[in-house]
Sequence to fold (487 residues):
Amino acid sequence: MTDSVRRLDATSLESAHRDVTVPGYDRAATTTGIVHLGVGGFHRAHQAVYLDELMALGRASDWAICGVGVLPADAHMRDVLREQDHLYTVAVRHPDGSLTTRVVGAMTDYLFAPDDPAAVVRRMADPATRIVSLTITEGGYALDQVTARADTDPPTAFSLLADALALRREAGETPFTVMSCDNVEDNGLIAKAALTAYAQTVDPDLADWIGEHVRFPGSMVDRITPATTDADRDEVAEQTGLHDEWPVVCEPFRQWVLEDHDGDHGSDHRPPWEEVGVQVVPDVRPFERMKLRLLNGGHQVLGHLGYLAGHRWVHEAAQDPAVGALLGAYLEREAVPSFEPPEGTDLSDYARTVRERFASPAIRDSLERICAQTSDRLPKFVLPVVRDQLAAGGDVRLGALVVAGWARYAEGTDEQGDAIDVVDPRRDELMAAAAAQHDDPTAFLRVTDVFGDLAEHDRFVTAYVAALEGLHTDGVRRTVERVLAET
Fold:
């Protein structure tokens, strides 16, 4: 740090440059109303920002966030936030490359579950906590990829939730709301299934009580937040005059659609988020499908094929004439026809917005990030489109090419012969299947825990095998061009 740059904390806010938005409210006068499990870049650039904006309006002072780290790797986040009085910077990068910066103060505490799980349970059991929200990633729900049902041995998050709700029940207190903000279709129902399945194994009466009394609203959340780099830290420090060890850089676009069956928030229900742009609706499922199948599915279209072709950034893949054309065609020809749009929404316009966001060079989002954990992602984002198209007699050739791209990527080398670090919870199984597919082209599809019975659908298998053969013999661009011409 230079003499002109101070470390970000509560005492240095007055030194921030004049164009930086800083908390103008009294953080010491706020009280915790939300406990959030899984504090990463997305939560800090999305849900916490909405709450920070409410507090800046003089609202929601009793809804401050206590973050919770669930995994051992979250220790670094704990240390950074503690040193910074739980303040951090959100830097919005605009298409012209410029930044607007905001120091967010809505998070006022952070607990690290591996050190003291009892402290987390006590905080959630406190009657002041009215919402426990989750961004624990798609893999955090211990879902069966084929049935989308929760396993009975979920990760730590659900044991913490169950223990806290058991204390609330014993004390005769109203339970908190469990609010999933992960990219999982029917995320509210899935969170309920995961929690009640776990509770059933330890206390069936508790499981029944949870099923009857706990709210599990669904939500759709959207904002691209690439991993923070050292260059980002340096740029934020120059822009703000404050050194933030872990700022968040994000795109200008954001969306949050929240399900609320009661129609109004009330003092003990939720903050009045609609006052800062959150869409509150009685049924979030059409919005979920739109985002998961078009935006998240679109990432899967670009990821493996773009990486194989030699790109390393999302915008490079989106701007590639062949891969970018595949993205547009997949969205319009297969993803959009696979579901009914939310009322009043033009899906073609939304798809166009997705393509524009991906193509922006200002957001340096890595394909490596997009390609990680694919066995948790592609079955939720792409395979539902494939299955619905098969059921309706629709085209699946572009979806088959996307899946073939993953299978080719899992072989562990790109088209230039460079090694690929395959990051996936099923890495060994997937790479073994990919290694066998030169002699057995459907070997990858027969990983049934991921694909179910997809290998039994002749129309999909024919398109998949042709695409995989093309990727092996002709490469990404020629194969994409051929498939696009055929469709």
Observations:
- The two ends are 56 Å apart (CA to CA).
- The domain at 286-486 is CATH 1.10.1040.10 (N-(1-d-carboxylethyl)-l-norvaline Dehydrogenase; domain 2).
- The chain has two domains: 6-282, 286-486.
- The longest helix spans residues 285-308.
